[in-house]
Design a protein that fits this description.
The structure is a homodimer. By secondary structure, the first copy, chain A, is an alpha/beta fold. Chain A has 12 helices and 13 strands. Chains A and B meet through helix 8 of A and helix 8 of B.
């Protein structure tokens, strides 16, 4: 399998679809990005994806692609490639794999978007060469992927790796999932925003200083307060923002300590928008893990930032297609 | 590999050594148990184990055993069978596998005791036939084993499955590991005893009622208060004991929700002394998981009590030996 082997990777989310031609070395050869028109429904979106794939294929290498890999923000039946539930797309039981295979006459594999991104980081990013790794993507929500003994964990119903929903503070604030104190409810982007809005409401003077430090001009609407604003204010040394970041760091340390003790990986790879906004957290989390996780579980551990950033999804999806469909 | 295939399983803990002849169906054919004389040191203990194995072998089947499996309460190098650290035995870097192999001229495999017990439950207990399961043993401490996709997870340095040290309450009480709010620090036997002693100290009248309900006679020493006493008082409807059991149940629900969301098993098997003392917790934990874990992660889930009880260790260790060493 040489560099001439390539595949098409698709990253399908609630706001955008990205399609890329990716070679066996993980290099993106061609790419296309479009907004996802969720309101048009599954048929129209699948038709748009097929059209994007045809376009990328026309401008890609002259050899035929090994196949198509799709990472979708939702729950996937691994055997059938049916998207069982994708809340951001408002999809239920959509036969994405069958539909694209029929349209394209190419083999198609479908997986969860976070797992696709984990494939990307594992094969072509910060996880290269590791047999035991965890990717934790801390964005608006928190998700992850786990490789153990050289295999991606799938679980009994293909949902292994819901690492945002490990209970980190059993008395903590409510989570969108119906439980409370999930890692995501303490350190996900939406939770950071919630915490900042509450803190600003509770302490108006400190809140004013926070907004000034973040460079926000009055009037400020609640939806203007997000994790990026907190990061900006913290980087401008605002005490309230720094307190919030300290709390986020503490939650991420507690949550990753759980993961290290449970899975014993040799690499913990931290990605997602919150980590990109607060890159200093990587070292803080690493130091916290070394302090609080079991010594035996951290002997071989490296804590690293994700390398592929926004490309992890398409690169990983294409990598999975090459691995599944390319002749050896 | 028929029923005539058998192996020797050893369960080596800080208080007792158990050696058994076990057939390929998981049936114990012969067994011996002795106290562990920790004070005599590794050489003497290994000699005693070798003598016990010889004795069991003499009274076991006439065919030679496939080999010996040892589960030891400590951290093991999987490649060399060296016991790296076993605090209850006061062992560091003890070459258990080499020593027993030399003494016995049989192949010997060494693993962690909790992982051996997980092998036992997986192959011959409540986990039979499952490809994705978690065994959680809630005794004085809490440990576990995880099977995912039909494979026992080992991790990068063979410590995967330290499920007692997932952070469940990041503001919780200190754990013996140096962190705080670990599942074990909330629901392990030692933590239940600590909580009961504190509660009795804080509320003397309620404490007196608790001690009467548990059937303890004055004078009561602090070490008389343990998880079994709490279970006895709770079963006698003592309000303080029931409050403590409610807290334990809540912690175990939060912790197992984390495990279900992270690993997505089809079976969660609950064992250990605390579960044997409070068997009603199995259904409570199952109901809590169904309420608080992600729906997609619980679709295929059964929550079951462990079946092999105290035999899981020797049966599992022998099973591992048969699997590793028996001709196929």
């Amino acid at each position: 399998m040489g560099r001439e082997t390539w595949a098409i990777g698709v990253d399908l989310g609630g706001t955008k679809v990205e399609v890329a031609a990716v070679d066996a070395g993980g290099t993106i050869l061609q790419r296309l990005k479009q907004p996802t028109h969720v309101e048009t429904g599954p048929d129209s979106i699948m038709a748009a994806i097929a059209a994007m794939i045809k376009q990328v294929r026309e401008h890609g290498p002259q050899t035929p692609p090994a196949g198509v890999g799709v990472g979708v923000a939702g729950q996937v039946n691994a055997a059938t490639g049916v998207v069982r539930f994708a809340p951001n797309l408002n999809w239920r039981e959509v036969p994405l794999q069958d539909r694209l295979q029929t349209d394209l006459t190419l083999p198609v594999g479908v997986t969860n978007d976070v797992r696709a991104a984990t494939w990307g980081e594992w094969r072509h990013g910060a996880g290269q060469g590791a047999e035991d790794l965890i990717c934790l993507f801390i964005g608006t929500g928190i998700g992850g992927g786990v490789v153990s003994g050289g295999r991606m964990l799938e679980g009994a119903t293909n949902t292994a790796g819901e690492l945002g929903h490990i209970t980190t503070d059993l008395n903590g604030p409510p989570c969108t999932c119906g439980h409370r104190g999930c890692l995501e409810a303490l350190a996900g982007g939406w939770a950071i925003a919630r915490r900042a809005r509450e803190a600003i409401g509770d302490a108006p003077a400190a809140g004013q200083a926070f907004l000034r430090a973040a460079g926000l001009k009055e009037p400020v609407a609640p939806e203007d307060i997000n994790a990026a604003v907190v990061a900006a204010a913290a980087h401008a040394h605002d005490p309230l923002a720094r307190l919030i970041v300290d709390e986020v760091a503490r939650a991420l340390i507690a949550g990753t300590v759980s993961l290290i003790n449970a899975f014993n990986p040799s690499r913990l790879i931290l990605g997602g928008g919150v980590m990109q906004g607060l890159p200093e957290l990587t070292d803080r989390i690493g130091a916290g893990i070394r302090r609080f996780a079991l010594n035996a579980a951290t002997e071989a551990l490296e804590v690293l930032p994700a390398r592929l950033k926004g490309d992890a999804g398409v690169v990983g999806a294409a990598t999975l297609a090459i691995q599944s469909f390319a002749p050896r």
